[in-house]
Design goal:
Elements: H1 4-7, H2 12-16, H3 28-32, H4 38-41, H5 43-48, H6 54-67, E1 75-79, H7 86-98, H8 110-116, E2 125-130, E3 140-142, E4 145-147, H9 150-173, H10 179-188, E5 192-197, H11 199-203, H12 217-232, E6 237-243, H13 251-265, H14 277-288, H15 295-311, H16 324-332, H17 337-345, H18 355-372, H19 390-398, H20 404-411, H21 418-425, H22 427-430, H23 434-446, E7 458-459, H24 460-465, H25 474-487, E8 491-494, E9 497-500, H26 506-517, H27 520-535, E10 542-545, E11 559-562, H28 574-586, E12 587-588, E13 591-592, E14 599-603, H29 606-630, H30 638-662, E15 665-671, E16 679-685, H31 693-703, H32 713-723, E17 731-733, H33 734-743, H34 753-763, E18 771-773, E19 775-777, E20 780-782, E21 799-801, H35 803-828, H36 864-880, H37 902-914
Parallel strand pairs: 1-6, 2-5, 5-6, 10-11, 11-14
Antiparallel strand pairs: 3-4, 7-9, 8-9, 12-13, 14-15, 15-16, 17-21, 18-21, 19-20
Helix pairs in contact: 6-7, 6-8, 9-10, 10-12, 12-13, 14-18, 15-16, 18-19, 21-23, 23-25, 26-29, 29-30
Length: 925
């Protein structure tokens, strides 16, 4: 393949970069006044650089037939959407009918004449009414005559003084001449062609209630109406009028003017077809390049591309496999069709991007810079557009919203851009400029898109079509795309589509923010809150997360201590975990810990810790982005805000699982009885998939007997036999046993004292384990119970008695009772009453004990909760523990000097009814 620069030579002004940007905007007045540049003013050169589209051919045919008297439309409306350039089309008509150059020298014209049956090119008078050049309040001197209005200008250009004489009075008064006068004027100077450009821009300048030298708004509309009617009456006269799209009309007044003008011109059917894509290719190519004669080189290059597309069909868009794609490549050479597709399909959707002129300006600057840089690639592709060139970049971003300059310089193209840095570091990308080409292609295909578009970006296959040339491996460009996706802030992707935006890539922004949230103190605070809510209490009265041992009270409550991340568990870090846990077991601050058997530890898994840290940082990052968006610190549209919310919820959902995955090691201290001084550590793993973390911890501890929730009396009996009922010690305080079990690591670890008390109560049913008593006075046991259920207490008198001692005591007590009963019977044995004896005096029954209790106490409303708990423990519990019936009633009396507000009344009434209060009323007194 030959390089494009060897086959297609740019026009001199393009190649040297000395073209005037304004020259792409054809000015019909300058051509009329013979002050335009040669490419517009010279008819022969103009047609050499002009591709006659199908629409333009039909228009020229109609004009020629009309001025030859062979039919044709009298009034032709050109719409901006025509796309071939409305002013450019008028210039073609101007040069054709001016007669300055023979028709046979005008490229593309002889076949049109032949098709119209015209052997000799007719010459016509030409009138140019340029709405931008004319002013409605500035009269123009034409020799000795002062022209004020459009009709005055029309008459002067058609017939000079004689022509002007017909409308002189109407010109002076600002009132439109009638149809009859205009018909006579046009007939006197036919054949003629009237070219009206930017008419709406002229008419919209007339205020509603003020008359200018050019007439009024209504008089100018009346003139247009009369002119169109007059042209119908003159068979060799034709009017071409260019009207813009509504958005170009300029304000409410301009829209009103445009709507009125369209009403008059709209009666004539447009004859245009939209410019086809291939016609657009040719228009641009003719204007930018000299004649391209090496057809063989063109075909070789295009076949090489098409062959590559066919051999790697899975990598390129479907249209590249169609047979007509080869023809498209030939017609657009040396520019790849993908460039035209992006410009004509994407960039022309921008309000201020003119279909042909905008493409010409962008491509002229691109070709100039590529020619200057000695670009030797086979075609000019999207990946070649020189965004590194300041002039080209300024031209491109002129049509876009603000903010693109920094994005291009940092992330797309230029010496300091990220793609250039990647290519410098990796020769695999550097040789084909893979990163820059991918970034340029994505920019060209995505920059004009609206942020609110339902589908954004360019897919991978079109990215490859914009970058890869025959002989290059598409895999290199795919890898380059992935590398850019990982590193660029403003490159977004979704559903295999990629696009640049002036707002940062949300995921990339999140990744950047994660750095500031990956601090130990941030992690500790977030995970502490998370674990506290996840674990709850479960088997534990209290859970301590990441607190020093000085803050863990030394009480009989069972406590779970979550060790800090620095004490994470693995086989190699066991000693670190055990040393840290030992500190808690041995000490509370600077005081020795006595209740060592009330602590269990939860440790993180070393391998999972980093993952949890990453998710915590991700959650905080998404949260900060959402908050900054709400506070307008960054710009988030509705779709972006929804994306952030969805990502935040997703990471929150995964965070709980990550926390369970990480904090899954239960570390339980214990001791072997034979080595009471040495702590033995056991490790138990929880199931991260369990629905409740707190319940799973309780379940594991229960299954391995690390925490006992229900204790059999036989185990207590064995404990007592082993450690307490030695030698003469056959009676122990129940509270002392509980305290020892809280302190000694080789004893069972009960969930709480209620488990111990239930065991005592249950065991009291049997004579196999122990006896219970409320207290001991000398050799006597108050409330002695052996083999009968007795409610257990842990006060300073309640005792446990071993069965042997209890049996002996019971026998001794029974014998004493029998002896006492026998002695009593001896004392009260009645004698046989004689006839005169009185009956024996009845024995008074024993005095009845108290059977009912009532107590009343006023609680401090600030401490009511704690006071009530104390009341339950110190008073009510003594009744309920012995099975007595207790009724607790609460009286609540509240007063407000100014009365309760409606909200308070409503809330309290609702809650009181829900709690089924016996009385729930408000009173006015």
């Amino acid at each position: 393949m030959k390089a494009w620069r060897e086959v297609a030579i740019p026009h001199e002004d393009v190649m040297k970069g000395n073209f005037q940007e304004a020259e792409f905007a054809a000015d019909i007045t300058r051509v009329y006044e013979e002050t335009a540049s040669p490419e517009y003013g010279d008819p022969e050169l103009f047609f050499q650089r002009t591709f006659i589209t199908e629409g333009m051919r039909l228009l020229i045919d109609s004009v020629l037939r009309r001025i030859s008297g062979k039919g044709g439309e009298p009034v032709i409306q050109l719409q901006t959407a025509f796309g071939g350039g409305k002013t450019h089309t008028m210039l073609a008509v101007f040069h054709l009918v001016s007669g300055k150059t023979a028709a046979k020298k005008l490229a593309g014209i002889p076949p049109i004449l032949d098709a119209a049956g015209i052997t000799e090119m007719p010459k016509a008078r030409i009138v140019v009414l340029d709405g931008v050049n004319l002013s409605p309040d500035t009269p123009r001197k034409r020799g000795a005559i002062t022209v004020r209005t459009l009709w005055g200008e029309l008459a002067w250009q058609l017939g000079r003084e004689a022509g002007y004489e017909l409308v002189a009075q109407a010109d002076a008064s600002g009132v439109s001449p009638g149809k009859e006068i205009l018909t006579r004027l046009i007939s006197n100077h036919a054949p003629c062609v009237i070219l009206v450009d930017e008419l709406a821009a002229y008419v919209r300048q007339f205020p509603d209630s003020k008359e200018l030298s050019g007439g009024t708004f209504d008089s100018n509309l009346s003139f247009i109406q009369a002119l169109t009617e007059a042209l119908k009456a003159v068979p060799t006269a034709v009017l071409l009028a260019a009207l813009p799209e509504s958005w170009q009309a300029g304000g409410p007044h301009g829209v009103a003017a445009l709507d009125a003008l369209k009403g008059y011109f709209g009666r004539v059917n447009a004859i245009w077809k939209p410019v086809a894509a291939e016609e657009s290719f040719e228009i641009v190519r003719r204007r930018l390049f000299s004649n391209i004669k090496d057809q063989k080189a063109i075909e070789q290059t295009c076949r090489a591309f098409v062959k590559q597309y066919a051999e790697h069909e899975e990598s390129f868009p479907r249209e590249t496999l169609e047979g007509r794609y080869y023809d498209r490549m030939v017609r657009s050479y040396p520019i790849h069709p993908e460039v035209f597709d992006r410009l004509y399909e994407d960039w022309t959707t921008l309000d201020n991007f003119q279909r042909t002129r905008g493409v010409l300006r962008l491509m002229a600057k691109a070709i100039y810079r590529l020619w200057k840089d000695g670009n030797t690639e086979a075609l000019i592709m999207p990946g070649n557009i020189p965004l590194y060139d300041t002039s080209y970049r300024n031209e491109a971003i002129y049509y876009l919203n603000p903010g693109w300059d920094a994005v291009i310089e940092k992330e797309i193209d230029g010496e300091r851009s990220e793609p250039m840095e990647i290519e410098t570091q990796d020769p695999r990308f550097g040789a084909p400029q893979a990163c820059r080409k991918v970034a340029r292609t994505i920019f060209l295909g995505s920059a004009p898109a609206s942020p609110q578009a339902a589908i954004r970006g360019i897919d991978l296959k079109h990215i490859l079509a914009g970058c890869v040339q025959p002989g290059q491996q598409e895999g290199v460009f795919v890898d380059a795309l992935h590398r850019l996706s990982d590193r660029l802030h403003y490159l977004n992707s979704a559903d295999n589509r990629y696009w640049f935006d002036t707002r940062p890539n949300l995921r990339r922004e999140m990744e950047e923010r994660k750095l500031r949230f990956k601090k130990p103190e941030t992690f500790l605070a977030e995970v502490k809150t998370l674990l506290t809510s996840m674990i709850g209490h479960g088997s534990f009265r209290v859970v301590h997360v990441f607190v020093p041992h000085a803050d863990v009270p030394d009480t009989a409550d069972l406590r779970l201590v979550v060790l800090p991340p620095g004490s994470a568990y693995s086989r190699s870090t066991k000693k670190v975990v055990e040393d840290m846990a030992s500190e808690y077991v041995r000490w509370r601050g600077d005081q020795p810990r006595t209740r060592q058997n009330r602590l269990i530890f939860l440790a993180a898994d070393v391998e999972s810790l980093e993952g949890l840290s990453d998710k915590v940082a991700s959650k905080l990052s998404w949260q900060s982005i959402l908050e900054d968006g709400r506070e307008a610190k960054i710009t988030l549209d509705f779709g972006m805000a929804k994306t952030v919310e969805a990502e935040l919820q997703k990471v929150k959902d995964s965070l709980a699982r990550a926390a369970r995955d990480t904090y899954r090691w239960l570390v339980v201290p214990g001791q072997a009885a034979a080595a009471a001084g040495e702590v033995v550590w056991e490790y138990y793993a929880t199931n991260p998939g369990a629905p409740s973390f707190g319940q799973e911890i309780a379940k594991v501890l229960r299954e391995v007997d690390a925490v006992v929730e229900e204790w059999s009396p036989i185990h207590l009996s064995n404990l007592l036999k082993t450690w307490f009922w030695e030698k003469d010690a056959h009676v122990v305080l129940a509270r002392d046993i509980w305290q020892k079990m809280c302190s000694l690591l080789y004893m069972e670890r009960l969930k709480d004292e209620d488990v111990f008390k239930r065991c005592l109560t249950t065991g009291s049913d049997s004579r196999d384990y122990f006896a219970l008593a409320d207290g001991r006075e000398g050799e006597e046991y108050q409330g002695f119970s052996f083999g009968k259920r007795k409610q257990a207490f842990l006060d300073d008198r309640f005792v446990i008695i071993d069965p042997v001692t209890a049996t002996a005591y019971e026998q001794k007590s029974n014998a004493a009772k029998k002896e006492a009963q026998a002695g009593h019977a001896e004392e009260v044995k009645p004698e046989v009453a004689g006839a005169g004896d009185l009956p024996p005096k009845p024995i008074a029954p024993p005095q009845a004990t108290s059977r009912r209790y009532f107590g009343s106490k006023t609680l401090d409303n600030l401490k009511a909760q704690s006071d009530f708990a104390t009341l339950m423990e110190e008073v009510v519990l003594h009744f309920t523990s012995k099975g007595h019936d207790v009724v607790i009633k609460i009286d609540i009396e509240a007063r407000a000097l100014k009365g309760f507000d409606e909200s308070t009344v409503r809330t309290v009434k609702t809650n009181g009814d829900a709690l089924k209060f016996d009385s729930n009323e408000f009173f006015k007194e």
